[in-house]
């Protein structure tokens, strides 16, 4: 027992030296990285990201460190690009250098690296080439897609008229409208706004978008083996995704039953035909033999995080229309007419 106090000081000194060496090595590695908050051991910057909204926490770091900054999710380093210019420079101007995707635990569990948005390397290049070619054949960038959009706008306007001028939140209405344009190309059909399956699908996708914007998902990416056994919102995300997969599987099954090789109706038919062609080859490429690669984002039908922008635009259009009408009424009033006459 008398020997223990003698070991205390050397132990503290050794621990301090080790921590100092680790800190200096970490700081040396950060010199070539964009600026960012100093991370804590093991936790990284997770305490600074903890809050009601991950996006809000990142926005605060953007204000302090600029549009390109470094954060640590535990021991995992991440460079954040914020804003159009930063994203364009990396993903467009230097697309080859920044074309890879991180193998996150969340992505691995939900998609296993399949699909256009989550694949890498040659798989991603072939899927991207196929998707662009097929979507062009079905009207992307042409007048035919414009006609589909105009048709859907008429359905949207009809829904707006049904409200008879009462206040409404256009978020879900806009989401259904945009999703229907995409569904008409991918699934070959639009859905009624009252269709229960369609509403359920959009609700599941939107719920998952909200859950992704939480620290729970970051914790899952850092400690998947532990988080798989813990309760939390991340588990509901996986349940929702399984329901989406079942819906997509049903769509694919119906397309297989009515597939006409001479007349593909949509993106799904085109992919199924490509699958058949690949299976007939002597050297089968597994890229086009996996049903999981059929849909670019597994039924992510335009219902994601861009909706607030659409709502903002719609709200401002309505506001501008109200102001314009008010100005016209004001300018057409007798007092305004006399003012205009006097001005002449």
UniProtKB/TrEMBL annotation:
GO molecular function, one term: iron ion binding
An example Gene Ontology biological process: xenobiotic metabolic process
Main location: endoplasmic reticulum
Record bears the keyword Endoplasmic reticulum: yes
Parts forming coiled coils: none
Alphabetical keyword list: Endoplasmic reticulum, Heme, Iron, Membrane, Metal-binding, Microsome, Monooxygenase, Oxidoreductase, Signal
The keyword Signal appears for this protein: yes
Signal sequence, start to end: 1-28
One GO CC term, this protein: endoplasmic reticulum membrane
Membrane topology type: Peripheral membrane protein
Subcellular location: Endoplasmic reticulum membrane; Microsome membrane
Cofactor dependency: heme
Classification via PANTHER family: CYTOCHROME P450 2G1-LIKE-RELATED, CYTOCHROME P450 508A4-RELATED
Family: Belongs to the cytochrome P450 family.
Descriptive protein name: Cytochrome P450
Species of provenance: Mauremys mutica
């Amino acid at each position: 027992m008398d020997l223990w106090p003698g070991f205390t000081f050397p132990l503290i000194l050794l621990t301090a030296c080790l921590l100092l060496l680790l800190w200096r090595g970490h700081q040396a590695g950060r010199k070539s990285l964009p600026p960012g908050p100093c991370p804590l051991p093991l936790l990284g910057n997770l305490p600074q990201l903890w809050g009601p909204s991950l996006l809000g926490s990142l926005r605060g770091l953007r204000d302090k460190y600029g549009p390109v900054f470094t954060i640590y999710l535990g021991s995992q380093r991440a460079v954040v690009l914020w804003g159009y210019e930063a994203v364009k420079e990396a993903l467009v101007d230097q697309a080859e250098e920044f074309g890879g995707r991180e193998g996150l635990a969340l992505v691995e569990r939900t998609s296993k690296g399949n699909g256009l948005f989550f694949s890498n390397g040659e798989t991603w290049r072939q899927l991207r080439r196929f998707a662009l070619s097929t979507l062009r054949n079905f009207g992307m960038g042409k007048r035919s897609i414009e006609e589909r959009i105009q048709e859907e706008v008429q359905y949207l306007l009809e829904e707006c008229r049904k409200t008879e001028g009462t206040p409404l939140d256009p978020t879900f209405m806009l989401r259904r409208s945009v999703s229907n344009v995409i569904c008409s190309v991918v699934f070959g059909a639009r859905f009624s706004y009252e269709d229960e399956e369609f509403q359920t699908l959009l609700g599941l996708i939107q719920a998952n978008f909200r859950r992704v914007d939480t620290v729970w998902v970051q914790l899952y990416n850092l400690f998947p083996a532990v988080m798989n056994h813990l309760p939390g919102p991340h588990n509901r995300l996986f349940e929702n995704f399984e329901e989406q997969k079942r819906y997509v599987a049903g769509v694919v099954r119906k397309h297989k039953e009515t597939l006409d090789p001479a007349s593909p109706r949509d993106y799904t038919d085109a992919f199924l035909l490509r699958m058949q062609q690949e299976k007939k080859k002597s050297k089968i490429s597994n890229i086009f033999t996996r049903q999981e690669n059929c849909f670019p984002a597994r039924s992510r039908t335009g219902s994601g995080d861009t909706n607030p922008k659409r709502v903002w635009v719609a709200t401002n259009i309505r506001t501008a229309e109200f102001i314009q009408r008010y100005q016209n009424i004001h300018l057409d009033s007798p007092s305004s007419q006399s003012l205009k006459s006097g001005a002449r």
